[in-house]
Design a protein that fits this description.
About 35% of the residues lie in helices and about 15% in strands. The protein is built from 13 helices and 14 strands. The chain starts with 11 loop residues before the first strand and ends in a 10-residue tail after the last helix. The structure holds iron/sulfur cluster (SF4).
């Protein structure tokens, strides 16, 4: 990724699904205008999903995901299909590729699955260059699935603009509507950011939630002042007026709350990301589950980053320590990172997620959906830290 690139987590995720040899990889190459995916006449060439981040004219920054065939019944093929299914938690729009074969049972099953996940479907009839009568095949698909496909020839690069137009028409309504600082900050507000550059901060650079927040504030014409926690008082004294909003690292919540001017709103990066990537209402409701934790309870901490644990690590050390101080030393805390997230959440009494800045919103929402479906409370780092500091009702939520 170059410095000019949009982080993958902020891109529209488009999944390409279909039977083996239906031309999914050729379609990905045609849409991107590059030879990215390996194309072969041999069935099942694509094994693990292939992710390609790129800019598509008319759509902006996207991630295209090429997947293994949905009709692979062999033992290893079934594992590939499972991997393909895992991508459904991330994608915003699905391209379902038909190739003119009259047996469309696998595609019909897939439509059912995509509908159950509420993923917009764009059916594509590929290989029009090889079909004698693509109109009647298209009518057959419409009759049997209810969907009229976009007719294309990926090989001849025909019909690609029609696919892009269809994606634009099927974009989720709230896609791109979400902002980090949302309602908490107004255009032109003076905003002070408290960003401790402690042992957990990467040497020589800022972490992604801070970078993305600063960029958005600059776009919103906000004067931005950044300080470390120890310089907060000095910064407040040197400002001609109190900041309209203070955004702090959640770990400094209490200290910032104690010295902030009464008229300044207070929030944290993690709380803003709870609204940006997740479901702030569910997080705030779920944090009350802390009251019901007992020594024999089990808490799951889910962190999107996969870094090696650091001293004073917020997810692995600080939050477990604070919870054990409150509940008792016997409390079990398990930590998962990266894409690991259990399908069965029933063993847990509470899930605490990081801000999720490395994941796209769809993926974090899929995890919340899983927790909701199993009646497990799920919250996030910032909400927990504000709650444990006793100031959750004093902070501004998005
Ligand atoms: S993905 Fe999670 S742990 Fe990693 S930087 Fe973002 S909020 Fe922090």
């Amino acid at each position: 990724m170059s410095l000019q690139d949009t982080p993958r987590a902020n891109r529209l995720h488009i999944g390409i699904f279909g039977k083996r040899n239906s031309g999914k990889s050729t379609l990905l190459n045609a849409i991107t205008g590059q030879d990215i995916a390996l194309v072969s006449e041999i069935k099942g060439t694509t094994t693990d999903p292939v992710y390609k981040a790129m800019e598509i004219h008319g759509l902006g920054p996207c991630v295209l995901i090429d997947t293994a065939g949905i009709d692979d019944e062999e033992k290893i093929g079934k594992l590939r299909v499972e991997k393909t299914k895992e991508t459904l938690d991330k994608i915003d729009v699905a391209l379902l590729v038909f190739d003119g074969d009259k047996d469309i049972e696998p595609e019909k099953q897939w439509i059912k699955l995509l509908k159950s996940k509420k993923i917009p479907i764009i059916p594509v009839l590929n290989k029009s260059d090889l079909l004698n009568d693509s109109e009647s095949v298209s009518a057959y698909i419409k009759e049997n699935t209810g969907f009229k496909p976009v007719v294309v020839s990926a090989k001849e690069k025909e019909g690609i603009p029609q696919i892009i137009n269809s994606i634009i028409r099927h974009l989720p309504e709230d896609f791109d509507a979400q902002t980090i600082t949302g309602k908490v900050v107004k255009e032109g507000d003076l905003v002070l950011l408290v960003m401790p550059q402690d042992i957990q901060a990467p040497k020589g650079r800022l972490i992604l939630p801070q970078v993305q927040t600063i960029r958005e504030l600059l776009d919103r014409k906000c004067p931005v002042v950044c300080v470390t926690t120890d310089m907060l008082e000095t910064a407040l004294k040197s400002l001609a007026r109190p900041p309209a909003v203070i955004i702090t690292d959640s770990q400094a919540f209490k200290k910032v709350y104690e010295i902030k001017p009464p008229q300044s709103k207070l929030t944290s990066f993690s709380i803003l990301f709870a609204g940006y990537k997740g479901d702030i209402d569910y997080y705030v409701k779920s944090v009350q589950a802390i009251e019901n934790l007992k020594e024999n309870s089990k808490v799951l901490i889910a962190e999107a980053c996969t870094h090696a644990p650091l001293e004073e690590d917020i997810g692995r050390e600080k939050i477990p320590k604070l919870l054990r101080q409150r509940v008792g030393e016997g409390l079990t805390v398990e930590v998962v990172s990266g894409v690991d997230f259990p399908a069965d959440l029933s063993p847990y009494d509470l899930i605490i997620h990081c801000g999720g800045c490395m994941f796209n919103r769809k993926y974090v929402l899929s995890r919340i959906e899983r927790a909701k479906n199993q009646n497990i409370p799920m919250t996030n780092y910032g909400v927990v830290l504000a709650y444990l500091a006793g100031i959750l009702d004093k902070v501004s939520l998005n």
